Amino acid sequence: MLQGDVPERDLATFVLPELGRLQKTGDQWAPYQIVDQGGIVVGPVRAFFAELQAEGKSASTVRSYGMDLLRWWRFLWALDIEWNRATRADARDFTRWMQIANKPQRLHWRHRNAGYSEKTAPKPRMTRKKIPGTPNAITGKASPGPQYAARTRAHCETVLRTFYDFHLDEGTGPIINPFPLDRSRRSSRANAHHKPDQPFKSERAGRYRPVIPKRAPRRIPDEMFNALFAALRHNRDRALLAFWVSNAARAEELLTSRQRDALPGQQLVGVIRKGTRAYQQLPCSTDAFVWLRLYQEEARRDGVPHGKNLPLWWTLRRPWRPLNYDAARAMFNRTNDLLGANWTLHDLRHTASYRLARDPNMPLTDVQWVLGHAHLTTTQLYLPASQDEVIERVRAHHARRAEQRDRPPAPPAPGYNSDSMKTLFGNSW
């Protein structure tokens, strides 16, 4: 509960210290752990990570939860507060700080490993001035702003509330969750009186959970995709984009494919789904397999490891390593920089989804199967026209209006005196 004698904190001058870190262990039983500034593993977080692993959460989910928990732990360390002594006033101030303050600017890991400090680190080369939070001139998408996004704050609130709920049930944490439920949810669960024939309502769960603005999926126009594809330098990258835009797989899902999973004769490639971790074969275009064959021939000549149980995608330089998501995103960002755009890898999935959903000969249930959506309502997001299509139609509407305005009036029918018509209707005749 909130206590009346809690002093007001000066959050305007608060700076989150870079204490502790989230480190990857390489151990499949504990893939990630949080350590403090002394290198000691944080025990409550380790127990929570074990619970997440027992629930079937992937290592990437554990890492995502760990980033939010590290941010909360740094807040507690800076204010000298024990994690099991945190009150709702502390949670409220943390939420306010994330909502108003700017994100901390951290030193790049390459500069940190080289021994640079924030003052001595070399400044990055800026090819063009980029103001955070402003829309891109080509794509219309806003760049990440200086403050935490609403989705980041909502995810952090959910993670911290779940963390304290776990320790509350285990009897190892505080007796009251610092991140409470919304006041309207105190005595009932979400959708408690839901009718089976009606869709579920979107009910806020946490009291400090922000409202997430709805945004329509953004597809890449065909001319922009052609420009992106032409800017690629390697056949591996061309094959990746051809697969992403034809089978609508998530970027990290395609990177799970093995060399045995590519079946050119059947136009299928096998991937591991992100949520269910199930194996699924997805149909792809013939162009994708042409670029894949060109890449495989180059890789074979260069000495890339070959075997049906080995990964399908590899790095382009020695030592050969399986291509991961961060490397694929860096490749795509370099191509974006050449064009001055800010498309993302997930926009390729949106592009493929739009192409499938807008095909009149493609049933929506088939599109749902390809995308791996659990609910058909999620697939229906790709049925309405995209923003680019709406803008073009509105422009055409204004052009038609201007053409009608500039068009001379039709002459009067035979038998009418033009002078009489001008007297009655003015110069419009």
Please give a structural write-up.
With 429 residues, the chain is mainly alpha-helical. It has three domains: 8-105 and 136-184, no CATH class; 222-382, Orthogonal Bundle (hpI Integrase, Chain A); 386-429, no CATH class. The protein has helices spanning 43-54, 59-79, 88-100, 109-113, 150-170, 222-231, 235-247, 251-254, 286-302, 325-339, 345-357, 364-371, 376-379, 387-406, 418-425, and strands at residues 21-27, 30-35, 262-263, 268-272, 279-283. It has a three-stranded antiparallel beta sheet with strand order 3-4-5, with no helix packed on it. The radius of gyration is 28 Å and the shape is globular. 21% of the residues are buried.
Summarize this structure as a short list of keywords or feature phrases.
two-stranded antiparallel sheet; 429 residues; 3 domains; three-stranded antiparallel beta sheet; single chain; hpI Integrase, Chain A; mainly alpha; globular
Report the helical percentage: 40-55%
Please state the structural category.
mainly alpha
> What spatial order of strands do you see in the largest sheet?
3-4-5
Low-confidence stretches: none
Within CATH, the superfamily of the largest domain carries the name Intergrase catalytic core
